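4.2 Preliminary Data

To establish feasibility before requesting continued support, the project team ran the inverse folding procedure on a target of 140 residues. The structure was first converted into the token representation described in Section 3, and no sequence information of any kind was made available to the design step. The complete token record follows.
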């Protein structure tokens, strides 16, 4: 976090007499709005990511499923790798299902042997033969 802070303030002019203020850089007025935040998020990502999120929000699924998928795509699930990165104590970083690899969204939903078996059954059930992609957004 210290390095991140130094990167943010490097090259900035800090002055003692000036009052601190929050300024939103996403809009020329410096005022935050959800509309401009959403536009900035869409513009920051490449077309593939935009397509993924467009597909996600257009999907006719339960809101909880959409929300969980959104968190998976952003890497925001409380998996062991995320918990350890945030300083939350964990006894092990290994996957709770297979106990052979570090638990991450990528592993839990794509690489774990149990996930692969589930995907295989689902794909066979709907009659699709497919190779699963290693990138979770492409897989989605
Ligand atoms: Zn696993």
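Position-by-position output of the design step:
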């Amino acid at each position: 976090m210290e390095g991140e802070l130094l990167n943010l303030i490097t090259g900035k002019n800090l002055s003692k007499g000036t009052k601190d203020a929050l300024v939103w850089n996403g809009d020329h007025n410096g005022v935050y709005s959800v509309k401009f935040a959403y536009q900035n998020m869409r513009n920051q990502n490449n077309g593939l990511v935009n397509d993924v999120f467009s597909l996600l929000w257009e999907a006719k699924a339960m809101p909880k499923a959409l929300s969980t998928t959104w968190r998976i795509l952003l890497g925001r699930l409380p998996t062991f790798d995320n918990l350890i990165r945030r300083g939350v104590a964990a006894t092990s970083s290994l996957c709770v299902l297979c106990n052979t690899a570090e638990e991450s969204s990528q592993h839990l939903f794509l690489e774990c042997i149990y996930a692969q078996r589930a995907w295989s059954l689902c794909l066979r059930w709907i009659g699709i033969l497919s190779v699963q992609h290693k990138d979770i957004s492409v897989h989605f």
